[in-house]
Design goal:
Length: 427
């Protein structure tokens, strides 16, 4: 039965990776994979234990996993709605208007660093879409524009590593009680920044000293003022979540619901005659398929944990690889192929909190490796897949032009993390 589950997992992820080729949405593949795996567990437990005991074993395990998964899904739903509200008010024009330089090298650094810091509080998808849209308006030459787009992917993924709300993977580890905000930001900021700075230096050396098209800031001042108000309210709501958790002790999804409630009320008051700027309309713009995809992935990994597959995988790696640093570094390479979300979920099932408590070296390094490792291939992250579609980037081009400098940056980030960790944490 376990072999059958592994086969379903492999087939399901093949369908997810080649989503555009087969024409089936990855959310559908994830749901089919999840239900199939849990159905196999049900049949197996009924055969081994009988129907009565099955009710106590499988359903209890499913309910325990749903308790954690539901918190993450609610959190992401609230966060994505807040981001959609900012988008509906053209809030990201503030960021676009901020970048004025016309020199290509300077622009590459500006776009990458703005993406890095913006992604720390917004989701990678929204940040990537906003910054690639800016690049399209400024960089006409396709070869250069693809380099810019590649760096947007790298910076968006790296920016989400060092804050609990910047990326789904760090949010999973944070909500799952593996990381705290202060330690995460203190230990992971420099490695994350290095993983962007190294490829930036590489591409800066080979980029021609040319200027790009001029860019005119937004002319509708009334729109900009409204955008500024909603932009800062939305960012404030997102940033307040860790503070709310620290003050009240309530789980993060309660903080995001508080922020959404406040923003919902204010936008209703600000836009009495503009229904298209209110939450009910904005909800139609939220990417629910991404949330359903995440739900399917997490349920699949939960099924594999319940079946004991993840435990055996962890034992195998510990037996043959032994060194945890090497194991976690390899996870980053696997994240480029499998994706960072399923790998994070798998690692949370492989290693128990009783052996690796909150803020231990393992969890901090996993947060870095799966986040930065997702940039090694264009299909390794949601940001990569979206930009791939927007700019028609091919898998082969990304592998040839982007992967090597990104890998060097990834390795530099790991080395810097190990140095910082051993310097800061007493043995």
């Amino acid at each position: 039965m376990n072999l059958l589950m592994v086969a379903i997992f492999v087939l399901g992820y093949a369908a997810i990776i080649f989503e555009q080729k087969i024409g089936v949405n990855k959310a559908a593949s994830a749901l089919l994979m999840a239900v199939s795996c849990w159905s196999i567990i049900t049949i197996q437990k009924c055969y081994e234990c009988g129907v009565v005991l099955y009710m106590g074993i499988v359903l209890r395990s499913l309910n325990d996993h749903l308790h954690e998964i539901a918190q993450l899904v609610i959190f992401l739903l609230g966060a994505m709605t807040i981001v959609a509200l900012i988008e509906s008010h053209d809030g990201f024009k503030i960021v676009i208007d901020f970048i004025r330089t016309r020199r290509k090298r300077t622009l590459l650094w500006a776009v990458s660093l703005v993406t890095f810091f913006l992604s720390a509080v917004l989701d990678n998808l929204t940040t990537s879409i906003a910054m690639v849209s800016l690049v399209r308006r400024l960089v006409e030459e396709r070869d250069d524009r693809l380099i810019f787009a590649g760096m947007v992917i790298v910076a968006a993924n790296a920016g989400g590593i060092w804050t609990p709300i910047g990326d789904v993977t760090t949010t999973m580890l944070w909500i799952g009680g593996r990381l705290t905000t202060a330690k995460m930001m203190g230990l992971l900021f420099i490695p994350s920044l290095l993983s962007v700075a190294v490829p930036l230096c590489y591409f800066s050396l080979f980029m021609k000293k040319e200027t790009v098209a001029s860019f005119t800031p937004s002319e509708n001042k009334g729109s900009v003022h409204g955008a500024r108000r909603i932009f800062f309210l939305g960012i404030g709501a997102l940033v307040f979540v860790p503070v709310f958790k620290a003050i009240t002790g309530l789980p993060p999804f309660m903080g995001i619901l508080l922020g959404l409630g406040v923003l919902w009320a204010l936008t209703d008051l600000f836009n009495r005659q503009r229904d298209h700027l209110k939450v009910p309309y904005v909800l139609s713009k939220v990417d629910f398929s991404s949330i359903i995809f995440l739900l399917g992935v997490l349920l699949t990994v939960a099924a594999m944990e319940t079946a004991g597959i993840l435990d055996r995988w962890a034992v195998w790696m510990d037996t043959y690889l032994k060194n945890k640093d090497i194991i976690v570094a390899l996870m980053g390479l696997m994240a480029a192929v499998i994706g960072n979300v399923p790998l994070t979920a798998a690692s949370m099932g492989m290693y128990d909190l009783s052996l690796y408590p909150v803020d231990s070296k393992l969890w901090e390094m996993i947060a870095y490796s799966v986040g930065a490792g997702g940039s090694l291939l264009v299909i390794g992250s949601a940001a990569g897949v979206v930009v791939m579609g927007m700019e028609k980037i091919t898998f082969a081009w990304y592998l040839r032009k982007i992967t090597l400098p990104v890998f060097i940056g990834y390795a530099a980030g790991i080395l810097s993390f190990l140095m910082i960790y051993h310097a800061v944490i007493p043995r």
